[in-house]
């Protein structure tokens, strides 16, 4: 029964946490019994079971309960198979979504070597605009996961493609995550490549794209500032904030934090 398998998946994370806390008594139980079930249910015929498995996997990764060897030898190969060009449409959409969500939880080496090539392929998927939309909405997170060198070498060309996509929703998603992409690049790339690209979005024929670009204008401009002097920084939740000076902290030590959130790169993309 799919409902039984779904319920089982929802119980996996708390069981895994218990096993981790009681590791001397159950040193290999999670890796031998539970992890294979989670991986197998990623390809279950029932979409609710797959969704529960995906959610369980993300919780396990967030809690750092999955061994690096299992990530590289079990999880990533399954996701690469599900996101292959000849994969079923529904499976492909789910796979690219989970790849984007888990990228921030994996090591940079794993993401760059195992997942980044497939992500770049999916950005150019001509069959499903939903796949390209997910890639565009999560582009900033992938850039942050792989760093400046891989972003400029592999991702920026794909970002240009998505920014000129025939589907306006794709261009809007790119405008919404523009600040996060810009923040990952060098000042020269920001000036010579991303600035003209942003101008094209702010002059787009679709008013929804233009509106999203104008909302991202301030955050994009802020990426040109020197963080040490401007006090701007990107928080872990993807928001651009202002770090209070030492003088402000001392004078307002009894007051709530005065960090000012200017723009969320992920909230609008969702």
UniProtKB/TrEMBL annotation:
GO MF entries: protein phosphatase regulator activity
Coiled coil: none
PROSITE patterns xref list: HEAT_REPEAT
KW Transmembrane helix (keyword) present: no
Keywords assigned by UniProt, alphabetized: Repeat
Record flagged with keyword Transmembrane: no
Recorded GO CC terms: cytoplasm
InterPro entries: ARM-like, ARM-type_fold, HEAT, HEAT_type_2, PP2A_Regulatory_Subunit_A
Residue spans of the HEAT repeats: 115-154
Protein name: PP4R1 phosphatase
UniProt source species: Machaerirhynchus nigripectus
